[in-house]
Amino acid sequence: MCLAPQDDDIINRLTPMPTDYSPHPEHHFTFGLWTVGNVGRDPFGDPVRAALSPTRIVQQLASLGAYGVNLHDNDLVPRDASATDRDRIVREFKNALADTGMKVPMATTNLFGDPVFRDGAFTSNDARVRAYALQKTMHSIDLGVELGAETYVFWGGREGVETNAAKDPQESIKWFRDAINFLCEYVRAQGYTLKFALEPKPNEPRGDIFLPTIGHMLAFIYTLDHPDMVGLNPEVAHDTMAGLDFSHGVAQALEAGKLFHIDLNAQKPGRFDQDLRFGSEDLKGAFFLVKLIEDAKWPGMRHFDSHAYRTEDEQGVWDFAAGSMRTYLILKEKVAHFNADADIQSLRDELRSRGGNPHIVPKFSALSGRELKGRAFDLDTMRAQGYAYERLDQLTMEILLGVR
């Protein structure tokens, strides 16, 4: 078939320029030992993959271009390990980090796997359990600091109820506050520079989890003794499970200066916590999340808290890890296209011009209040005016679909 000259122009315009989407450490991509180390067990099936050693995970992620690896305490050191075994395991892990240049930016504590935490950790009705949870967390904080972690995440997966008859929610929140205050004081007494990041989730494994959303956690932080030390670690799947727009919550955390860490994955609404590969569901939502993070020039870690499909062997695990980083970089490029697109920016400039005059909505003073009360508005014109959001959204979709 012979193409006319104008056909060549169309093909050239629609064919994206080749781009290198290879990740590098400066992109700040991280994974957890528990994410790529997931053995594919689910509530109805046994493991389908062999466990990977922490040192192998470090070495393989480094070869893929990741910046670092994060961990729960027991991801690295089994909870029944002797002191001698603990020192050996940590020594070997630190050697692997040194050999590869990989970092440990974040650490956390497993306060959900042991049967002792069946009723929660910091909010258990049993004071002995609450005390043990503090002890375990202090040891885990020490390990995290030893490995170089600067952020410490708290996910309260067991901090909740199946029946409201079980606990007084006000008392439970007080217990949770007491625990975070205690641990803040521990960090200060040790001279650590660690910051805490709280991770909200609405449900699962508990029927209902206390402080279930970003907004709940933000309000809670300002009741603490040292709110400056504590921020957020929001997760895509957790907000999606609650039917929320994740980028809106992240924007609230950013605006408050409380985005200390972030968990990237994907999730189908209305499902159990799936921890799917980032960008594999709700591509537009993933795009606007990347746009928010990149436009803000946020310096933190892009952490993938997700895992490969249960169908995969070990090679599939590394395909999953590589794909997670590649998708983020592809979306980052799409963000650059969006920000440079003349038609999109013309529409956005028009919107900004409507809202950018500080005299239209002034700061309050006695004079400005009187002026605003007496101002005449052309309501007929305002009522008839559209906003061109359909056009703007279509242009966004065309960028995502690669035809613009």
Structure description:
The chain has 404 residues and is an alpha/beta fold. It folds into 2 domains: 18-340, Divalent-metal-dependent TIM barrel enzymes (TIM Barrel), CATH 3.20.20; 342-400, no CATH class. The protein is built from 16 helices and 10 strands. The chain has helices at 5-14, 33-36, 54-64, 73-76, 83-100, 127-146, 169-190, 214-221, 236-241, 246-255, 283-295, 314-340, 342-355, 366-374, 379-384, 389-400, and strands at residues 29-32, 68-72, 106-108, 151-155, 160-161, 195-199, 208-209, 230-232, 263-264, 302-304. An 8-stranded parallel β-sheet has the order 8-6-4-3-2-1-10-9. A two-stranded antiparallel sheet has the order 5-7. Strand 9 (263-264), helix 11 and strand 10 (302-304) form a beta-alpha-beta unit. Helix 11 crosses helix 12. 35% of the residues are buried.
CATH class of the largest domain reads: Alpha Beta
Mean pLDDT: 95
Question: How would you spell out the order of helices and strands?
Answer: HEHHEHHEHEEHEEHEHHEHEHHHHH
Overall body shape: globular
Contiguous helical run count? 16
The description of the largest β-sheet is: 8 strands, parallel
Secondary structural class = alpha/beta
Q: Estimate the strand proportion.
A: 5-15%
Low-confidence stretches: 1-7, 10-17
For the CA atoms, what is the radius of gyration? 24 Å
Question: Which oligomerization state do the chains in this entry correspond to?
Answer: single chain
The CATH homologous superfamily of the largest domain: Divalent-metal-dependent TIM barrel enzymes
Biggest sheet: strand arrangement? 8-6-4-3-2-1-10-9
Which CATH architecture of the largest domain is right?
Alpha-Beta Barrel
CATH fold topology of the largest domain: TIM Barrel
Amount of helix: 40-55%
Q: How many individual domains?
A: 2
End-to-end CA span: 25 Å
Number of strands: 10
